Every structure is written in C-alpha cells, then in structure tokens.
Amino acid sequence: MVVEAKRIDIPRLEGHHCFACGTANPIGLKLTFYNMNDTVCADITLGKNHEGWQNMAHGGIISTLLDEVMAWTIMYFKRIFFVTRKMEVKYIRPVLIGVPLTVKGRLMKDRKPPYVGAVADILDDKKQLLVRAKGEFVEIPKDKLELLPDGYKQEVIELFSKFGEGVLLNS
Length: 171
Fold this sequence. Notes:
- With 171 residues, this protein is an alpha+beta fold.
- Helices cover 19% and strands 30% of the residues.
- Strands 1-2-3-5-6-7-4 form a 7-stranded antiparallel β-sheet, with helices on one face.
C-alpha cells in the first residue's frame, strides 16, 4: 500500500524584499513553499524576464531557486539561523521558460555541526530532472545572533513558531 504524501503549506514572512521569496519585491520570484514528507517544494513557471539564452532560464535564476529551496528546507526542518557556505550545481537539461517547474529540497544527514547539508532538484512538468545542487550551510552561533537586525531576528523566530510541532528533524 502506497501512502500519498500530504501537502502542508509553509507560512512565510510578509513584506520583505528577498528576490526569491519576498512579497514586497516587484521583480522578485515570490516563491511559496510547501512540505511533502521530508521534502520542501516550490512550484514556479519562469517567464521572459528570467531568460538567459533564447527560451532558456538564466543560470543565476536557476541557482537562486536551488539555494532558496535548500534554505527553506533548513529553516523548516532545523529552525536555525544560518548562511550558505558553498553550493555545487549540476545542469543536466535545459530549463525552459514557460514550463511549470517544481523545485525540491531535502536535508543531507552526513554533516557535523555547525554545518548543515542540503540537496535540491528542479524538475519539469514531466518530472524530468533538469538541475541538481548540493549545498553546505553554516549555523550562526547563538553568541553571534546579536549581529542580526532585531526586527528580522524576531520575525524569523515567530516564523519558526508557525511551522508547527512535529516537523523538526534532528539529522
């Protein structure tokens, strides 16, 4: 018996200018995320404003999608403050504009604190793998959190509380 994964919409911060997920950026991607078991996903169809070569998405936009879904995967499952340390991207097939895409992120389990690993994929509407990325992220130590703007820090802590109980993964 195959159990269907249940989609859980993930709350987001409103009014921020993040190019990938901000609601206040007029030229941003405005990504919204949802959880499917151990995976965080976002759906998007890129347009002409995201084009590199003719009818193909720009590589920087593609990298942004991958970095952002890995970041939201870490926020959702780990509830920590962190920064991206490095990311490796493997372009497998062209990412065409005008085609519905799903971006998926998962935690990697082989990293020791303060490092957190994640992987991300971009699939097209036929579920073909187009791009894969691996990222390494570094948790910001608690004694360095005072360097973050107070308002932002408080908003993220409130966002973590909206994620609900039972989703925290200690991997």
